Amino acid sequence: MNTITRHSTTRRRFLQTGAAGAAALTLPMRFAHGAKKGGVMRMGKAHGQTVDSLDPGTHENGFTVAFTFGYNGYLTEIAQDGSLAGQLAERWEASADAATWIFQLRKGATFHDGRDITAEDVVASFNHHRREDSTSAAKPIVAPITDIKADGKHTVIFTLEAGNADFPFVPTDYHLPIMPSKDGKPDWQSGIGAGAYRIRNFDPGVRADLDRYADHWDSGRGHFDAIQMITIVDPAARTNAVITGEVDAIDRVDLKTVHLLKRRKGLTVHSVAGNQHYTFPMRTNIAPFDDNNVRMALKYAINREELVEKILQGFGVAGNDHPIGPGQRFFAKDLEQRTYDPDKAKHYLKQAGLDSLSVDLSVADAAFAGAVDAGVLFGESAKAAGIELNIVREPNDGYWSNVWNKKPFCACYWGGRVVEDQMFSTAYASGAAWNDTAWEHEKFNKLLVEARTELDEAKRREMYTEMQQILRDEGGALIPMFASYVFAASDKLAVPAQMSSDAALDGERWMERWSFA
Amino acid sequence: MSTFAIVFYTLMIAASCLAAYYHRREAFMVLFSLTLISFLMGLLGGEVWLRYIAVAIGLLYACGGLAYSFREFLVQTLPRDIAKVMRNAPLTASFGLFVIVVYIVAAIFAPVIAPFGEAEVVGSSYAPPDDTMILGGDQLGRDMFSRIIYGARNTVGIALLTTALAFLVGSLVGLMAATLGGWVDQVCGRVVDTLMAIPSLVFALLLLTIVGTNVVNLILVIALLYSPVVFRLARAVAGNIVVMDYIEAARLRGEKTWYLIISEILPNATAPLVAEFGLRFCFVFLAISALSFLGLGIQPPTADWGSMVRENATLISFGEITPLIPAAAIALLTVAVNFVVDWMLHLSSGLKE
Amino acid sequence: MGVLQLVAKRLGLGAVTLLVVSIIIFGAVELLPGDLAQQILGQAATPETVKAMREELGLDRPAPVRYVEWLGGALQGDFGTSLANKRSVAEQLGPRFTNTLFLAALAAAFSVPISIVLGVLAALYRESVFDRIANVATLTSISSPEFFLGYILILFLSVQNPIFPSISSVSADMPFDERVYVTLLPAITLTLVVIAHMMRMTRAAIIALLASPYIEMARLKGEPRWKVIAVHALPNALAPIINVVALNLAYLITGVVLVEIVFVYPGVGQLLVDSVTKRDFPVVQACCLVFAATYILLNLTADVGAILSNPRLRHPK
User: Fold this and answer.
1) How far is B209 from chain C (nearest CA, A)?
2) Given an 8 Å threshold on Cβ–Cβ distance, is A397 in contact with B209?
3) Domain check: are C159 and C279 in the same one?
4) pTM of the model
5) With an 8 Å Cβ cutoff, is B69 touching chain A?
6) Is B100 contained in some domain?
7) Which residues of B touch C152 (CB under 8 A)?
8) Burial of A373 from C-beta contacts in 10 A (0-12 / 13-18 / 19+)
9) B253 and B124 in one domain?
10) Residue C118 sits in the same domain as residue C219
11) Residue C89: inside a domain, yes or no?
12) Is residue B232 part of a domain?
């Protein structure tokens, strides 16, 4: 098993070189050019529903993400070492205040129907998410863009409402592929993209078949002749499929049986430490969670090590009640790791003027695999601190709309963000739609805005460290663990030694990055 | 040929001969067919399969002996008139009774029997069996044995309540419809047809999502979904009874509808209803486990066998037996209940053969 | 009443039932917490995008209006388009329903003959060892959850002895024999699930007749046991047998969601569960109606079959 920790993001480096328009960035990401071509890759995915569509604004699960990365091209992408790389954008540069960004498109890149990719297509593709009546899940991500226009055939200018040094990371989001435009509107219905593979057949909730796009601009991507991606939601069925060789790889290995799967010959279980973390958000505006003593009591009443051992089977690390992963650049290393301490929990309860506490914790496996079990374990460990947790198992169905962000205390999953600022502004900024802890903290919000445009790395680190500490000691999110991405692949596949850590299966870019051995 | 195989075949053939000599036709048939099967299996699968068969035969005998002794025990301890019936009960029925008694005891005295609480975390996940946890730990390190025992209480209790409720509602309405006839009958019939036309699992999914998953709702929803089946049966059976002369006589006597249903029709409709109860009972089990497969079953950390099978299901792909234990618990109870039901049906049919 | 009249009357009633079912399903979907807009956007929902999507899908209009609109389309054979992915419902449902029917037919081809033969044999050798073993075996097989049976079969026939594929990904262009091959494991699972019910009913129906005078007569004539049962008892026991067979066929078509999930079989069940989860009303409605219609038609067939098998039922008092 390979454990690969993510490398620090080299954001500063691209910003500098990017602004100078250096030649280093004119090259796309390098892939193993010696990779063997050919073969049909069969992948068993844990996601995929009959209601999936080709509209990139609706993409949300592992199936659609891998699919869209396979048949679509993006302006930029996150490389395997966590750095930013150009894809359809060759170069980009920012104004001094980082509020205007100019992207130069690659010449000679084409859509699957042979058309050239132009600045108009980029504008139309972004406007698909930006327009007033947009239904796209990416609307908040592109909201800071106040204007986007084409300047000639190969230049696009983005104007932001405020400076953001991390902006070139935004187009890496899977919601934002470049689609062919027709009369200023993107044509997502046809399934024509600019990716390394073209769609042959898409049966939502069942399977997708793709063929290699021979005229793709980068011959270093896409080594398989064809891809068969099959939705296998049931964990046992997925395990069986990879054991019997029905598929070459599966994602979301069932952690309960991973020790047995590892013993199978011809298979390798891969684990990549990621930024994804599981949380128990408490809404800080609802009693009793409006009292920080109660929040602290609960934070001390959970046995993180036990959760990592039993829920993640060791495939992860204990969290420290802030959402920054240990592999991230501004991770606060020196912050003391919080551990299970029922006496401290009792102490904080007393501070809150309580002898005992009884609260409901809403859980469902929709929040994260094992959330129900995690709730049960939490309940057991909290008993020693005089805290009675009533585990309320909510239906998986409708969990994100009816429970999360509504119930005062529930289980939640965050995929994590490569850029610290994105993580904080998405889930902890005042007024953010996904601020699931209803977190309002003056100092925190001030630091968030300042750090975004701060260019001095040391000062920035200081600010982000302080923000992590604030969240750890006052925040509403109980973050017990960071989970690794665990997947299994046949030894017939040549899986890169270094894989992206921003999503499962090499950042869900396995179609274009992997090959047969 | 190994010593084991030689000893095995010698014993089997000797036992068959003995049975034949004492004219125990049934015993002979069992023994000799098993011998023949084991010849075949021995040829096909070698000694390993023979050992499986030997274990199976051993188990069969243990069950048979248990059933025999239990029947004797009941005959000795029960009042004379019941004992007389018991004496002629087939071994399967007494075995079924024994299993049911064991389950009831386990369900009632669960906290006394189980060494740990149902949610108590004792050791590490999938701890191997040892002195503290005789069946090992589950995925969270809870004691498997304790959870099976508590599971008896939750699973059997809920299934029993649900089935009873479905039968109460279904058969009462069914009998009423048959007795009253006319528009009541028509309306009930149409309502039931409509309910039955909607696939039950999906209907349960819809209803449980609407009302929320808790034990009370689970019981009510599944009872609602199963009562139409009972209604149909009760209506059909009662339909044949209401045209009988003695019902007509009772009507002419001026008896109330209620009296007719309870005292005249119900006693004569019991047999088919009881038979249906046996199968429905296990279908309710399955419905609950199917719902927990879809994430809507009994709430954790409550132990129920359906969810336990579900939680550990991936282990089966690797040939691990943990999920088999709760599944076997369900199967054993179903078989036992149906054995007893068969016997009761046989008693009530008066068929002597 | 002639058979034709009965069929006509029942078809009429069936249409009314379908209408009522569609209202119930519509009501239930309306009552479900959350709506399609929230479900599609999932964790990413913001009040703004949810509102925009509701408007785009027309979910902001009152429920009765939407129902009547849907009904108007449905009556003209247009079941609308899926709200979630804008594909026509008929186009989505068609291939799935074919798959479901194929699996059900295959399972029925095994289970119906086997269970009737087993049932007749069990009645013939009732209370014997054979009867007991058949009884225990079938009871055990139905009392195991069906997903569990599926996993066990996969373990033995796919993982340990690679005879069948563990996932049944059928596609429309597959040749018939290959299709049968990949569908065999789920079909066997379903066979194990339904066999006990049919077998027990067959046995019970035959045994119930054994006390009848004409059976006594046949026996007294000295006819062999098998002939008494196969020639005299079985034809008269057909009505309840046909009934239970129809009930189980309906189950094979409408109740196999779990088997579909375990074997990754693209049938209607999974489409239905997915659509319920996403509150995709037109798809839920179409699936439920197809299922309800199947159920009604099978029941009707069973009744007609029962009447044809028993001339006395053709002229009820």
Assistant:
1) 6
2) yes
3) yes
4) 0.82
5) no
6) no
7) 316
8) buried
9) yes
10) yes
11) no
12) yes
Q: Based on the fold, state whether residues C69 and C194 are members of the same structural domain.
A: no
Give the domain-ending residue among C14, C43, C75: C75
Same domain membership, residue C54 and residue C172: no
Q: Is A143 on the interface with B (CB under 8 A)?
A: no
Cis amide bond preceding C282, omega within 30? no
Q: Chains contacting C with at least 3 CB pairs below 8 Å? A: A, B
Structural domain contains residue C27: yes
B 35-94: CB under 8 A from C: 90, 92
* Chains with at least 3 CB pairs less than 8 angstroms from chain B: A, C
The two tokens of residue A306 are 């036990």
Q: Residue C209: its chain B contacts at CB < 8 A?
A: none
Q: Are B134 and B148 in contact (CB under 8 A)?
A: no
Residue A273 sits at φ, ψ, to 5 deg, of -65, 130
Chain A hits for C37, CB-CB cut-off 8 Å, are 135
State whether B202 and C295 contact (CB < 8 Å): no
Number of domains in chain C: 2
Number of structural domains (chain B) is 2
C186 and C40 in one domain? no
Complex confidence, ipTM: 0.80
Chain B contact for A376 (CB, 8 A cutoff) = yes
Residue C90 belongs to a domain: no
In a shared domain, residues B125 and B179: yes
**What 3-state class would DSSP assign to A46?**
coil
The continuous run of DSSP H or E covering C199 comes out as helix C176-209
CB atoms within 10 A of CB B26: 12
Per-residue pLDDT 10s for chain B (353 aa) are 577 778 888 888 888 888 888 887 777 877 788 788 878 877 776 777 777 778 888 888 888 888 888 888 888 888 888 787 778 788 888 888 899 899 888 888 888 888 888 777 777 777 777 777 777 777 777 888 888 888 888 888 888 899 999 999 998 898 888 888 788 888 888 888 888 888 888 888 888 888 877 788 888 998 998 898 888 888 888 877 777 788 888 888 888 888 888 888 888 777 778 777 877 887 887 788 778 777 677 776 777 887 787 777 778 778 777 777 888 888 888 888 888 887 877 776 655 44
Q: Domain of B316? A: 107-349
Q: Name the minimum distance, in Å, from the CA of C128 to any CA of chain B.
A: 7
- Residues of B (162-191) whose Cβ lies below 8 Å from C: 190
Structure tokens at C290: 């197809």
Single-letter amino acid code for the residue at A91: R
Of B302, B278, B282, which is closest to residue B292 (Cα–Cα)? Answer: B302
What are the C-alpha distances in Å from A432 to residues A422, A423, A475, B141?
11, 11, 15, 39
**B102 assigned to some structural domain:** no
Those residues with Cβ within 8 angstroms of residue A120's Cβ, 6 or more apart along the chain or in another chain? A150, A181, A184
How many residue pairs bridge chain A and chain B with CB atoms within 8 Å of each other? 72
The residue range of the domain holding C272 is: 97-314
B112 shares a domain with B66: no
Q: How far apart are CA C98 and CA B180, in angstroms?
A: 44
Determine which helix (DSSP H) or strand (DSSP E) holds A94, and give its type and residue range: strand A89-94
